[in-house]
Specification:
Order of helices and strands: HEEHEEEEEHEHEEEEEHEHEEEHE
Number of strands: 18
Radius of gyration: 20 Å
Distance between the termini: 23 Å
Helix content: 25-40%
Shape: globular
Structural class: alpha+beta
Largest sheet: 6 strands, antiparallel
CATH class of the largest domain: Alpha Beta
Bound molecules: flavin-adenine dinucleotide
Number of domains: 3
Length: about 325
């Protein structure tokens, strides 16, 4: 790690470099110990240079966007966390009459994309109003809400492949499904890093779009999304279970259940929150308890949607 510190200190890579950065500051759960090195590249070239240096030094690496879907270990991360937050350019490119392409750097907040589209009366992305996280994270996760998902509007995704070569792909149905993308473990593009995403938008009715976005944001607030630090839904839904995971956890009496500072939201049983001073170990214990209860009572295997970062016992 010292070698890597020296490399970053001496090099002129266009990036902000922090050492022993608490991941609790960088994740929406507000949980997590320090990352040895936390790097925020300002452009794709810098991102590639950082990753090449870490790879050549044999240092473990992880990618973070907005940190809105990650549970970071209490021990933090022994290696380099590369965060895309400073790669946040947003550009609207008119295409055919009545339509436009919204180009975003991987780190651009989804809320900024929604704002840019609404300001020009462009429709398509308003379903994501109030969705925390970055464009790259939303593309990686195929984030979905209110019956729409990112794959519905993604025109293309720019990325560095596992060899750090730049590439572009157009999402295809089949590879992109419910909470599934080719960038995830086991996918064709595993190990790639998304550097930008382009979204297809259509001209719409500006005031109707603004009203829809406001309605969805209000719905999120009413469901308690912003009452406590959290990462949205803890588990995926699974059609085979015949009902949403939140309903299953309600039936199991998990609403309001607490372990240490980790709590199941009193308003929505599939949202696990940091009720104050939660440790990652508390959160994971609550996750395991919910999984065990669902397995025992219904024979269901609840699959976490939230991604673990760092080492867990
Ligand atoms: C209050 C709240 C409400 C939420 N509601 C929803 C919802 O309605 N629907 C929904 O789908 N999600 C929801 N979420 C979860 C979260 O908003 C999404 O999963 C979001 O897309 C995560 O983006 P991120 O940038 O924060 O990703 P991160 O949390 O930073 O990362 C998530 C995963 O993506 C990977 N990743 C991130 N950026 C890149 C990149 N550039 N290249 C390669 N891999 C990358 C990370 O390595 C990690 O594995 C909610 C979260 C919160 C806090």
């Amino acid at each position: 790690m010292d070698t890597l510190r020296k490399i970053f200190q001496k090099s002129n890579i266009d990036a902000q470099v922090l050492y022993d950065e608490p991941l609790a500051r960088r994740t929406s759960f507000r949980i997590g110990g320090p990352a040895d090195v936390f790097v925020l590249p300002r452009n794709t070239g810098a991102l590639a240079a950082v990753m090449r240096a870490a790879r050549d030094a044999g240092t473990p690496m992880a990618v973070l966007g907005g940190g809105a879907n990650v549970l970071a270990s209490d021990a933090g991360f022994r290696g380099v966390v590369v965060c895309t937050s400073l790669m946040d350019a947003v550009e609207l490119v008119p295409s055919d009459a009545g339509s436009a392409i919204l180009r975003a750097g991987a780190g651009a907040p989804v809320t900024a994309l929604v704002r840019a589209a609404l300001a020009r009366g462009l429709a398509g992305i308003e379903f994501a109003a109030g969705l925390p996280g970055s464009a790259g994270g939303a593309a990686y996760m195929n984030a979905r809400c209110y019956d729409r998902e990112m794959a519905d509007i993604l025109a293309s995704v720019d990325f560095l492949d596992a060899n750090l070569e730049p590439a572009t792909m157009a999402p295809e149905r089949g590879e992109w499904a419910y909470k599934r993308t080719p960038f995830m473990p086991g996918g064709r593009l595993e190990g790639s890093t998304i550097v930008g995403a382009s979204f297809r938008l259509e001209l719409g009715d500006a005031s109707a779009l603004a009203a829809r976005a406001a309605e969805l944001e209000a719905d999120r607030r009413a469901k308690g999304h912003f009452d406590y630090p959290c990462a949205g839904s803890m588990f995926k839904n699974d059609r085979r279970f015949g009902r949403p995971t939140g309903k299953i956890l309600d039936e199991l009496g998990f609403r309001g259940r607490k372990i240490g500072g980790a709590m199941v939201s009193p308003k929505h049983a599939n949202i696990f929150v940091n009720a104050g001073g939660a440790r990652a170990s508390d959160m994971l214990a609550l996750v395991r308890a919910a999984q065990a209860a669902a397995r025992e009572r219904f024979g269901f295997e609840l699959e976490p949607e939230v991604v673990l970062l760092g080492e867990f016992q």
